[in-house]
């Protein structure tokens, strides 16, 4: 197998571009990003085939590659970058949290931020819990809504390991926000945790002033199992 080759990856992706798909994918993302038009199942198949011929990059070179992918115009390259990190996450160093932060605040939209928050940041902070207090405080207090959303969502998949005190503090910090993506994130993380601890979520929602959106999202699963 050959060493990881970014130009080869770019060529393969561009050879599989679909302009018609690209038009509709761009529209779906509010015209914020350009696309090659490769839908997720096909893109993953192409990526899998690529890695049959090329090795994954050395972990010490991942940041350089990821930043180059993030600079590319088409959104599929950002998706590849996130998934590449996901495959190598166990090898990442503690200080790589700053790379994840860079990805959150650059070319920000829900499609990247949500994956990064739950699948990269969440798992990285679980591996390096000593980072949680410092990074969470920085993000939840930031004026960048995507860092706020990351602070709310990084525990999304923690289940029994979720720190309810920290989640409560984060929600109370921004529960009166008018921002849709913050209100939605509050409801989402509460809904997901309700699958593990419905009593805590019910009591928290009852005792806390939340936006109608946050409350509705938070109670979706609980209300479903009641009927």
Total helix count?
A: 14
Mean pLDDT: 97
The run of helices and strands is HHHHHHHHHHHHHH
The total beta strand count reads: 0
Please summarize the sheet with the most strands.
none
**Rg over CA atoms:** 19 Å
Distance between the termini: 55 Å
Approximate strand percentage: under 5%
Question: Uncertain regions: pLDDT < 50 for 5+ in a row?
Answer: none
Shape: globular
What can you tell me about this protein's structure?
The chain has 227 residues and is mostly helical. The chain is 66% helix and 0% strand. The chain has 14 helices and no strands. Helix 5 runs parallel beside helix 7 (110-127) and helix 11 packs antiparallel against helix 12 (198-207). The longest helix is centred in the middle third of the chain and has 18 residues, at 110-127. The radius of gyration is 19 Å and the shape is globular. The mean pLDDT is 97.
Would you summarize the structure shown here?
With 227 residues, the protein is mostly helical.
What characteristics describe this protein?
227 residues, single chain
Q: Can you lay out the helices and strands and say which pair or pack?
A:
Elements: H1 6-15, H2 19-28, H3 40-50, H4 62-71, H5 75-88, H6 97-105, H7 110-127, H8 132-140, H9 145-153, H10 164-174, H11 180-194, H12 198-207, H13 212-218, H14 220-226
């Amino acid at each position: 197998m050959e060493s990881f080759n970014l130009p080869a990856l770019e060529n393969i992706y561009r050879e599989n571009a679909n302009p018609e798909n690209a038009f509709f994918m761009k529209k779906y993302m509010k015209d914020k990003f350009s696309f090659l038009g490769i839908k997720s199942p096909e893109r993953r198949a192409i990526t899998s085939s690529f890695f049959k011929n090329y090795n994954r990059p050395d972990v010490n070179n991942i940041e350089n590659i990821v930043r180059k992918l993030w600079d590319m115009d088409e959104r599929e390259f950002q998706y590849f970058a996130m998934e590449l990190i996901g495959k190598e996450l166990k090898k990442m160093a503690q200080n790589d949290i700053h790379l994840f932060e860079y990805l959150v605040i650059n070319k920000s939209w829900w499609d990247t931020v949500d994956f990064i928050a739950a699948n990269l940041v969440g798992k990285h902070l679980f591996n390096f819990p000593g980072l949680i207090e410092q990074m969470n405080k920085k993000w939840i207090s930031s004026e960048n809504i995507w860092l706020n959303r990351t602070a709310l969502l990084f525990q999304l998949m923690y289940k029994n390991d979720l720190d309810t005190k920290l989640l409560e503090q984060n929600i109370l910090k921004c529960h009166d926000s008018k921002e849709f993506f913050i209100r939605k994130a509050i409801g989402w993380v509460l809904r997901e945790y309700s699958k593990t601890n419905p009593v805590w979520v019910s009591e928290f929602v009852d005792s806390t002033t939340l936006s109608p959106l946050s409350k509705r999202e938070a109670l979706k699963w609980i209300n479903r199992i009641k009927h």
